[in-house]
Amino acid sequence: MRKLLFATLVVVFVLLIFFLPPGSLAALQHYQAQFSDWHQQHPLQTALAFFLIYVLVTTLSIPGATLLTLLAGSQFGLFQGTVLVALAATCGATLAMLISRYLLRAWVRLSFATPMAAINSGVEREGLYYLFALRLTPIFPFFLINLLMGLTSVKTLGYFAVSLVGMLPAIVVYLNAGRQLSQLRSLSDILSPGMMLMFALLGFLPLFSRWIVRLLRKS
User: Fold this and answer.
1) Which of 65, 63, 103 is closest to 86 using CA atoms?
2) Angle in degrees, CA 138, 18, 67, rounded to 5
3) Where is the chain membrane-spanning (predicted)?
4) Which domain holds residue 163?
5) Helix (H, G, I), strand (E, B) or coil at 207
6) CA 88 distance to own-chain centroid
7) Would you report the helix, strand and coil content of the chain in percent, each value rounded to 5?
């Protein structure tokens, strides 16, 4: 059963590579008008298709989630786009974590022994606060967090909830940038060094708060 499921995921991955639009900002801007026409003619179907594609992209760690988020900002607006992208990204992250936990456990442990030790240590010390900090800081690869967290003791529901809240700030930033999609020249226009520093500080905030609580309890 596990081999069949894994084979199915590989087939889906290959199909997505062939049928998804080219993964560049220029290609996204090129197809923006066509997607807008689909959305105006079939709003519910387009939103559902977008949601499912986003879940598959994030589950299988296919490059392109950032471009899809920009597209959501240009087509669905900030509120609806936030709901769609946040739920889809969290569902995809949770599915990727479960795949790592139940299908790829041995491979992940063998391939990422060094970062796995650091993740285990952080989860043992800080619990879900550590996951929250990782989600708030976009300098850590999305796919790697999903893979490594699958081998920890973090519960699925807790993983889903913390990931949902932790990814919201970055999602809103990209959605807001997507509202001016046609004016963007590169993805570096979105995250300036100052904004990256802000996200890094946000990432340390839950761990710092946890440390303060521990000091208060000891005193």
Assistant:
1) 65
2) 30
3) 50-71, 83-108, 128-149, 156-175, 195-213
4) 2-218
5) helix
6) 9
7) 85, 0, 15
Residue with tokens 């105006």: 40
pLDDT tens per residue across all 219 residues of the chain: 555 555 555 555 545 544 555 456 666 666 677 778 878 888 888 888 889 889 998 998 887 788 888 888 888 988 999 999 999 999 999 999 999 999 999 999 999 988 898 888 888 888 888 898 888 776 678 899 999 999 999 999 999 999 998 888 888 888 887 777 655 555 555 555 544 555 555 555 555 555 554 554 555
CB distance 67 to 25 below 8 Å:
yes
Task: Match 């699958």 to its residue by tokens.
Answer: 150
With 0.85 as the threshold, say if the pTM is over it: no
Where does residue 169 rank: exposed (0-12), middle (13-18), buried (19+ CB within 10 A)?
middle
Contact at 8 Å (CB) between 111 and 192?
no
Count structural domains, the chain. 1
